[in-house]
Specification:
The chain is of the alpha/beta class. The chain has 13 helices and 11 strands.
Amino acid sequence: MSALNHAKAQLLSVVAALDADELRDLGDYFNELVYHKTNGAAGSAPSENEENDGRARVLEAILSDLRATVGVDAQAPGEQITLPQDSNNFDGYNPDTTVHVDSFLYTDDDLDDLVERGEFSRNYCTQCGSHATRPLQFISHSAGQHQLMWLFTKSMRGTLEQLAEEKSAAGAEPRVTVLDVGSRLGAVLYMGYLFAPPTTSFIGIEFNPYFAALSSSVIQKYNMTDRAAVMQDDVRNRLDLLASSDVVIFHNAFQCFVNRADEVHIWNLVRAHMTRPGQRIVAIPSLEVQFAECGVTVRLEGWVREVVFDSPEELEETLEGLDGDEVDDIRRIHEYVVLG
């Protein structure tokens, strides 16, 4: 098959999954792309803005696919999620008035749109039939788009590029591996593939077979297999990945899914196998908070050092254009470098 016919076949598979509005957007994008290719300098590459627009369109197509598959709560069939009863993070949360909403799939604006269409409510009635209502409580098991965009384009971008350069200088392939523990829908994998430096590869390890299969299918559909993959397994069976990965992300991966004793055991395994100086840990919330919640006695001193911005002003520059809630979410992201 010629390169052109192969491209046409791939395009048809993408088009088949789009609705009319998405198809029109894709047509507009191709018209712009063809114009710049044929009217610009011969062989010129797309501009940065064009590339960003293309990434945004791919992301929106992925979100559309996932929303149609899993719904607002983004829970697997038969999944059991338990809110810890003695947790500061979930203090005051009542299972009867707590709603699971996936922050990667739905921003606050998206939820407002659903409310306007009568497909979602932010409140519950304390006395059926009355106007006495209270706000529902929301929890998410995925990082939000704004958190991951900030992480891969601002906070960690320089670190990822530096790690690749160090490998290249040492004569190794400049490939940086990011491991996402408890990858669920694959948010870290998609956002990382689209917005992190192209020398970065992503591996998700996901215990739930439904989510592992779902995210693997998305990676296949959107041709991300060169730098993204999902393994359906328990992280306790893949301690080699903890040791070999350059960056490991823990987005509150255990608290609602394993019992307290297992959570403590897992964190002790993380401490025992992440000992290579220079490895990075991204924790949401901080390791201090996650350890305190489950009673882990691992000492951070001597094992890791938190990476912070050089000045408050430098941090504030990266937060421009974000609203207060988004800033609060981003301040929950903590990066550490392993000392040994």
